[in-house]
Write a structure and sequence with these properties.
Helix content is 30%, strand content 26%. By secondary structure, it is of the alpha+beta class.
Length: 328
């Protein structure tokens, strides 16, 4: 963790992800922790996992309502950052660094490093997004799968073999997706977008998610599987089985206006008008999704690529695309 390595990491962000680099100006500890996550210790062939929360603006004991997590154990002693990291697996146990700098960027006293253990694992990307929002923290994690993530008010940054991949906050998309007019519909769409980005895209699970604001037209799709359980996407407890079943199926997934699962593995049937009016875009999945949104103007269609990026369609048009870095 040499000064040169930290400087190069910061410069890389300033060049490739300038918005994220600006957001991290008041969190200098991020570069040290991110460097550690990218170059972890290896012992007897085992690569250490890791997780740290930096500059949280509230006490972990107050996070239960927003995250569903309860503090099982915490230790705040005069251990160095390096010593404390060895106990933090980034799943159930986490380092918390706080009090290192004021918003002006000047060094202050009272800097603290502690270890917190939660009552359940909290390692998925969706977990990290919820914790970061609730705690007001920047999170660095090396997941047991080897994925390194940086999570904060800027969204999620993932380290991939081809470089950094940035997923901006899902909330930015809602202004572009204007088809959901009521607060209830916007909440469902927000849940679906978060699920698409952080449960499917982060695991490279390709899918088409269709949120119907009106009753779906049976002529526009072919149901090939039995009716599924009525899983409600607004309830977090339903997301794990939904993610699991989608990892095993092709075809589209239909939801009603309230976010309740209607059908899985659906084959979309475009009209001749859609085939003529809507040109191909990307692969078959994205083309079918866009054409369905043309045939069903009272729907929002979310296409998740196997490579991770997410595209949102409405009325045959692209409403948002994560690979652009922001909603369009």
């Amino acid at each position: 963790m040499t000064p040169g390595r930290l400087r190069r990491l910061r410069e890389e962000f300033e060049e490739e992800l300038p918005e994220v680099a600006v957001s991290l100006q008041e969190s200098p500890g991020v570069w040290e922790e991110l460097s550690y996550a990218l170059h972890p210790p290896v012992h007897e062939g085992r690569v250490a996992t890791f997780g740290v929360m930096i500059d949280a603006d509230s006490d972990p004991e107050a996070w239960t309502e927003g995250t569903g997590l309860r503090v099982h154990y915490r230790m705040a002693r005069s251990l160095s950052n390096a010593a404390t990291r060895r106990f933090a697996d980034g799943v159930s146990s986490w380092v918390i660094r706080s009090g290192e700098r004021e918003p002006t960027g000047t060094r202050v006293g009272g800097a603290k490093t502690e270890l917190v253990v939660f009552d359940r694992p909290a390692a998925s990307e969706r977990d990290l997004v919820v914790i970061a929002e609730t705690a007001g923290a920047v999170i660095v994690q090396r997941h047991p799968s080897g994925v390194v993530r940086l999570v904060g008010p800027f969204g999620v940054v993932r380290a991939t073999p081809s470089g950094w991949q940035h997923q901006p906050p899902v909330g930015r998309w809602l202004d572009a997706v204007r088809l959901s007019s009521t607060p209830g519909q916007r909440k469902v769409l927000w849940r679906l977008l978060r699920f698409a980005v952080h449960d499917l895209g982060s695991r490279r699970i390709g899918a088409i998610l269709i949120h119907h604001l009106d009753e779906p037209d049976p002529a526009r799709y072919e149901a090939r599987l039995p009716s599924p359980p009525a899983l409600d996407v607004r309830q977090a407890v339903n997301l794990a089985p939904l993610q699991h079943v989608l990892s095993q199926l092709d075809g589209a997934t239909l939801f009603d206006r309230d976010g309740t699962l209607l059908a899985l593995g659906v084959r979309l049937v475009p009209t001749r008008e859609a085939e003529e009016a809507v040109p191909p875009i990307g692969g078959t999945r994205h083309t079918n999704a866009r054409r369905y949104s043309h045939d069903a103007p009272g729907s929002v269609v979310i296409a998740v690529s196997e490579d991770g990026p997410v595209t949102v369609f409405g009325k045959g048009e692209i409403l948002g695309r994560s690979e652009d870095g922001e909603a369009v």
